[in-house]
Amino acid sequence: MVNVLLTRPLTQVVALEALVADSGHQPLLFPTLEIKALEASVERKQYDAVIFISANAVVHGMKILAQISYSSVFAVGAATAKKLNDYNISVDDFPQEKASSEALLSLESVSCLQNKKILIFRGKGGRETLKIGLEKTHNQVTYAQVYDRVICTLSELHKQSLKVFLSDSQGFISITSNENLDGLMVLAKQLNHLDNLKNYPLIVLSERIKQYAHSCGFSQVIVTQDISDQAVVSVLA
């Protein structure tokens, strides 16, 4: 049995926590980000296509989606598509294997979009890759920034989880995004344990996060086969 530091928001970690426990390991909750809804507005009432770049974008974008008309719906990956289906929204296409802006842009159904009005539902800030790629084919692209990721306030949960985690030289840290890793580093630094955490391997969801983790001083970084919870747990086997 090894300790696994889970850094997702508390509202999104339940399934992974259960899988880690069922696999015979010890899940330790260390949430680094809180998801906060933003009041967003849009420029028009009709779009040719809407794109959701995360499950959070779906949850917090439903109010705006109900106010507009659209012809096509795209998702950045399977988890986002599933969340749309949960709201009875049909998804025209999404990358089947790897969830990323690059994978979405490579889809024939997306690359063929030209001179269209496109609305991207996303969190505040983030990468511009998708917008830039769509604009290359003369699409008019705007954002609905419907949520923000805020670094958590240090709590007793953080202190206790980190104390248990660092009591064993063996363990893994699960990371889902660059922002997630930033939050981990901020909180660990407040507890004077950032250097200690860099001795443990990270489990990340993409090569992009791996490269960022290396640049932050984490030398042991494992990329999962896909972005599912099961893929994270399979690294522990």
TrEMBL record:
Enzyme class: lyase
Ranges of residues in domain Tetrapyrrole biosynthesis uroporphyrinogen III synthase: 16-229
EC number(s) given by UniProt: 4.2.1.75
Pathways involved: Porphyrin-containing compound metabolism; protoporphyrin-IX biosynthesis; coproporphyrinogen-III from 5-aminolevulinate: step 3/4
Family: Belongs to the uroporphyrinogen-III synthase family.
Organism whose genome encodes this protein: Candidatus Thioglobus autotrophicus
PANTHER family, per database record: UROPORPHYRINOGEN-III SYNTHASE, CHLOROPLASTIC
Function: Catalyzes cyclization of the linear tetrapyrrole, hydroxymethylbilane, to the macrocyclic uroporphyrinogen III.
One Gene Ontology term from the biological process aspect of the record: uroporphyrinogen III biosynthetic process
Keywords: Lyase, Porphyrin biosynthesis
Record-given protein name: Uroporphyrinogen-III synthase
GO molecular function, one term: uroporphyrinogen-III synthase activity
